[in-house]
Automatic annotation (TrEMBL):
Its EC number is 2.3.1.234. It catalyses: L-threonylcarbamoyladenylate + adenosine(37) in tRNA = N(6)-L-threonylcarbamoyladenosine(37) in tRNA + AMP + H(+). The lineage of its organism: Bacteria, Pseudomonadati, Pseudomonadota, Gammaproteobacteria, Candidatus Tenderiales. Residues 24-307 form the Gcp-like domain. This is tRNA N6-adenosine threonylcarbamoyltransferase. Required for the formation of a threonylcarbamoyl group on adenosine at position 37 (t(6)A37) in tRNAs that read codons beginning with adenine. Is involved in the transfer of the threonylcarbamoyl moiety of threonylcarbamoyl-AMP (TC-AMP) to the N6 group of A37, together with TsaE and TsaB. TsaD likely plays a direct catalytic role in this reaction. It comes from Candidatus Tenderia electrophaga. The gene is tsaD.
Amino acid sequence: MRILGIETSCDETGLAVYDSERGLLGHALHSQIELHLDYGGVVPELASRDHVRKTLPLIDRVLAQSGLAKTDIDGIAYTAGPGLIGALLVGAAIGRSLAWTWGVPAVAVHHMEGHLLAPMLEAEAPDFPFVALLVSGGHSMLVRVDGVGRYALLGDTVDDAVGEAFDKTAKLLGLGYPGGPAISRLAEQGDPERFQFPRPMTNRPGLDFSFSGLKTFAVNTLAQNGDDAQTKADIARAFEEAVAETMAIKCRRALEHTGLKRLVLAGGVSANRRLRRRLQRLAEERGLRLYYPRAEFCTDNGAMIAYAGCLRLAAGQTEPLVIQARARWPLESLTPA
């Protein structure tokens, strides 16, 4: 079964072809960072228009890369939510229309399920069950995963998602967009001993996250110590250390709570090297296995959507002849495949 995957949930247009027997055959990604750079964040209307321009040419590119014709595609998977509703509707309209035109089934994929299953694209893939830490610009979640569509939410953010906190902190430090990579680069020049940021919500039971307080702490630290280059680097280092340590503490609690020995790290923020190193240390200390996708599949991409769609189409799930998208879509509401 050869599945075309379409990802347009935010500001990246991702296309891929996944073969159930041969694996990933081709993938392409167009980033809109340059388009939104002057605005300091994603402008939804501009994102939607750019998806309209880029999706069809990228489909032609991945088909050529895969050595396939349109008639070789057996199904189409597209991201239907959560995300920016206009951007989602572009991918859903193109995906559902092409499926009808080509006479193949279509399936709507949950964006975070795509991220959650992205490590399955690697040679060493995790077996079910496992605990997943899903961290991105819009989500900070701990999930127990017992199978495809069998998800139990263990913890969620009560305010800013971690990627959003990175972006906001980068902005107050006068750094570029996107904020995560900018803070990470600056943090490498920071003194790890100068500032100690709090580890929010770790002094109370539970698995929920809160990152808005770290942003406020960074603002106050900057105001009290000046805005010279070294101070900014030291703040970036302390901020990143606090995020990584907080997540490691919550992951340890989730693994102890569930009794599981496998931890999956996924989502855009999973590319953060300090977070990876801290969770790898946790895995070594506790005798656990840590899994995460390669860097190109941490951010939004078509490969994860094609793979997740392949699993659901193989299980017999298809969409009716309608175009639907959801800006909000609880992960735990998905049906098992």
